[in-house]
Amino acid sequence: MSEVLAPGGPQAAHIAQLWWLMLAICAFVFIAVTLALGCAVLRARRATSETAPESPSTSGEKRVGLWVKAAAALSMLLLVILLGASVMTDRALARLPLDDALVVHVTANQWWWDVVYEDAQPDREFRTANELYLPTGRPVIVKLDARDVIHSFWIPSLTGKKDLLPGRTTTIQFRADKAGEYRAPCAEFCGLQHAFMTLDVVALAPASFDAWADAHRAPAATPSDPMELRGRELFVSGSCMLCHAILGTSANARSGPDLTHVASRAHLASVLPNTPVALAAWITDPQVAKPGANMPAHFLADADMRALLAYLGTLR
Amino acid sequence: MSFALAVVALASLSMRAGAQARQDSDWPMPARDYANTRFSPLTDITPTNVSRLDLAFSFSTAIDKGHEAAPIVIGDTMFIVTPYPNRVIAFDLSKPGANVKWTFDPKANAKSQGVACCDVVNRGAAYADGRVFFNTLDNNTIALDAADGHEVWRTNLGDIATGQSMTMAPLVVHGKVLVGNSGGEFGVRGFLAALDATTGKEVWRAYSTGPDRDVLIGPSFKPHYAQDRGADLGVTSWPTDAWKIGGGTVWGWVSYDPELDLVYYGTGNPGPWNPDQRPGANKWTCGIFARKLSTGEAVWFYQFSPHDLHDYDGVNESVLVDLPIGGVTRKVLLHPDRNGYLYVIDRASGEVLSADAFALITTSLGVDLASGALRYNPAKTPQFGKVTRDICPASPGAKDWQPTAWSPRTKLFYIPHQNLCQDTLVYETSYIAGTPYVGAEAKMRAGPGGNRGEFSAWDPVARKAVWTIPESFPVWSGALVTAGDVVFYGTMDGWFKAVDAKTGDLLWKYKTSSGIIGQPVSYRGPDGHQYVAIFAGVGGWAGGVVSGNLDTRDGSAALGFANAMRDLPHVTKSGGMLYVFRMP
Amino acid sequence: MYSECRSHFTRALRITVVLMLVAGCEREERQLDPPPVKPDPRAQAAALSDFQPGKQGPGMRMLAAAGGYHEQSAYEVAQGKQLYRWFNCVGCHAQGGGAIGPALMDDNWLYGKSADAIFTSIVEGRPNGMPAFRGRIPEQQVWQLVAYVRSMSGLVPSGAEPNRSEGLLGAPPENLRDAQRPDEKH
After folding, report:
1. B227: which of B284, B336, B500, C66 lies 20 to 30 Å off by Cα?
2. What is the DSSP letter of B111?
3. The domain at C33-184 falls in which architecture?
4. pLDDT, tens only, B56-76
């Protein structure tokens, strides 16, 4: 949650500013109300030991009345200030300059993110899953789609939330100004594994981002090592190719995440570290780490698993 | 010496005369000639006497799938190819009745039926130099000896495990057998190949997608329009590697101009149907190639439907005619495309001279002749998550594979076609080799007017229809026009019709045993009389509800055709039958 | 006295109503982590059909789901419906009406309508073009597909039928289907 207060870009900065203003006003109101409540309690205690509270003096009543009117007027003023601040924040969010924006198409599935980097030149488009790399200082337009139920896109340090609705494409714009790693948890309950549906967001300097993008445009190379080749054979002639795609092979299915550069990702399935041991456990039975996930268990012989892991390890 | 020369000259003259007479009486390939006119020069049948046509014989193929083939006739022999199992039967026409000379069974792989998108049809065989050439559903091109039917050679052109099949009729030109593949709904990469007619060896193969060296694009390639110029457009107009499963199959008609030495053919739809998975112009799908016969090098290309949105394959026939346009006789080709436009294209340069709508079109606003580009209507783009309605023409197009006929006498182009609109929804689909790669669901229905079919006569110089006959069902059969000015076509409820070529008046009709989706042909029999032959046997994409016994309660069955053909099973059943009529 | 009785009665009524509502809260039991089972010896043998989609491969050993077929479970049937599209079954069989493959929503069964027969069709393939998915689709998912295929003609309990499809509805929703075609009388 503290990420919201450490904005890495202008959109989150506007929202953080509004948040601090609301905190300040609410804190002030809270303290004022507490003090007033304290005064009232003290006065009531004094009152019961002396005269009956039913007959206050007229001047005392008028003074209290003034206090109430003043407090009411102040409350309205504070609310108007908050309204104004909210409107101005919305305006600021909508006025992000979008020249030379990077366009990314994010489709939310239960429970993974499909990310496509669009390009005017169709053969420069590429695809990844569960990670979103961005160049700093360049605006990003993210097109949002969902394939099954409603999810929500939220990078606390960079932008506010926007729902991904099945049957409707929406967009959100933001910019990352500070390089670093950010988390984007799914922000709308979407089923059993909603808690483990995080998008790894990484903001890089533009040169580093271009290098990353070029590497991700390339299809997977044909391995030379025989064990890696066997692993690839297992992938394209077994069940993996029914759901997954690896560019450069005949596997080109879209029901599951694209795995062309899976070895370069920080996490597996948003929940596991990307290590061979974790990958082996995941392939054997995804239900252990992510019960309810759509990927079924696979029982592989040891030699086959080693070959498959060797091949998947080459997919940087 | 001079006497010997005179004898030789006389002999060759008589041979040529005999060959000429033979040519008039024959029908050696489904389109009859390289220009694909389907025009019979025989004059015996006229509008006044056609009602006297007699049934000479009929022959059951014992196969209840769609019969799209054209029977071919050389001299005294007729050859037919059936749908899967693709048997070839030769009839001796000199004897009365259906006299079977020989039968050939290629023993095609039964599992190939699982990768045929639109019924297990075959569009016919071709005869050349004493041999009969045909394709089997499981990707073999076979050459048979015409005299006794023994197999001379067999060449395999692909694997059904990739989703590929073959249904088209080969074109045999100057010792080369031109064949193409099917499978655009399976992500099959399309190609046209030339096989040596003597040995069956592959001489060249031109792919429809991929790098220039695979598409046989080289220094001879001079496309007329700017958007078709550039290096490796068959790669750069697709997302990375998408061209490998990009479609562009060549399952339709091929024509040939002997003077220009150019082969003309169309490429099929890109895969998948869902356009969002393949941004870019998707070259070289949904277009027409002109290639040199000897090497297959591309000379020009034009794309009818760039970045196709509605399965508007470009494989329809290109009929080669010489027309007076703008006061000059131009060598053109007439191509009625799925997208609803009748293109008149200069067949030497690839310049589009006119493109006029011959059906109701909502999916585009016209063809810009200056740039050659099709102007799409953005409101009819199929999308994910939203049903796009009233897409006209529907996916089978204003006209599908069913071939037209051209009469040099009436100067009219006879077009069997349909009047269908549809609703479409697209979604992301996975490529799994050997399974359909479509990503779309559709429901078709009749267009305005309620008639699902039409048979029109089009004047390509005046650029308009001269007469049109509405039909209840799509007119899925081919057309035949004779020099006697009679036009023949068949309907899907089984009526074989003859109409006046000039006026469209119905002259004669005959109710056959099953819906007609075949190609009518005409020939002179050994007894000197004119004959007309046609296959009955409903099926194909339009008739799949009957030949596949589909359940029409699901309107999206048969890729959306079921919704429009709910009444077909009540009016006809399947069952292949060859009908041969004789003018007494 | 009367008012006391009445207040007891009202309280009892309230308690009863609450208990009834709580009793109705029983969720359908769903096995998230099926117990690991021995690999199926059938999976080691070669497929009956030599037509397998894509490249011929050694296949991977699958988990034979012990008692793997759950057609009473709405979750299993709904997963089958999702897999029916993910694995391109819809491309050949449409929404039950058929296309390249036969219709699945009527009561004409070429090879039988029992769960075993449908399972065999999917895993082993059939001679006239049904591919063999042995080694491709794990058995647990094949059983889900079997449940959905049976639901397409209304053969599973109505409580387990999947929801109406969104988008282009070609056929009636599965829970309203009748296997018998209207023009066929038995």
Report:
1. B336
2. G
3. Orthogonal Bundle (1.10)
4. 999 999 999 999 999 999 999
